[in-house]
Specification:
Layout lengths: L17 E3 L4 H9 L6 E5 L2 E6 L1 H6 L15 H4 L1 E2 L4 E2 L4 H11 L2 E6 L2 E7 H8 L6 H9 L5 H13 L3
Parallel strand pairs: 1-2, 5-6
Antiparallel strand pairs: 2-3, 3-4, 6-7
Helix pairs in contact: 4-7
């Protein structure tokens, strides 16, 4: 049996907005209003550079319009940099580990381009899917153990997402 991959579950999140890292934060604030609570995928020279969320803006003291005392801030100044990148062929167990380190949004790439965003909610759907043991099988097939810390990481991600 083929191991389940993150690409197998990423279909619902294939719609997302992108923004260039040089854009002013007010452009990000406007775009986030239409992003349906999803982050913006930040691009630099055609490649994934990071994600920007409303929380990133508010953490920098900005209002809903992306305005603050520092009117020169760009998206690159406020974005969350992406340290880990997963591909469509990344196993579910590996994706859980990556998400625990990266945060509640996990960009999925193909040939260096973002093709989907996966959330802790997507992983919850797998855990509660009618196919029992899908995560355990994925772990066994890839020799990645779903240890207590990994399960705790998934639970932490779900808690952060408000589930």
């Amino acid at each position: 049996m083929k191991a389940k991959t993150i690409g197998d579950v990423a279909t619902a999140q294939r719609s997302f907005l992108t923004i260039n890292h040089t854009e002013h934060v007010s452009a990000a604030a406007r775009a986030l209003r239409t992003a349906c609570a999803q982050p913006l995928v930040v691009m630099r020279d055609g490649a994934l550079a990071g994600l920007v969320t409303e929380s990133d803006l508010f953490a920098r003291g900005m209002n809903d319009d992306g305005l603050s005392l520092d009117s020169k801030l760009t998206v690159a100044d406020v974005m969350t940099k992406i340290g880990l990148v997963v591909t469509e062929s990344t196993t579910l167990a590996e994706a859980i580990v990556a998400m625990e380190r990266q945060g509640p949004w996990l960009p999925v790439t193909r040939d260096g381009q973002v093709v989907a965003l996966v959330t802790a909610v997507d992983l919850l759907r797998l855990v509660t899917s009618p196919q029992p043991g899908v995560l355990t099988r994925a772990a066994e097939e890839t020799e990645v153990m779903l240890s207590a810390p990994v399960w705790q990481g998934l639970l932490n991600l779900l808690a952060e997402a408000g589930i």
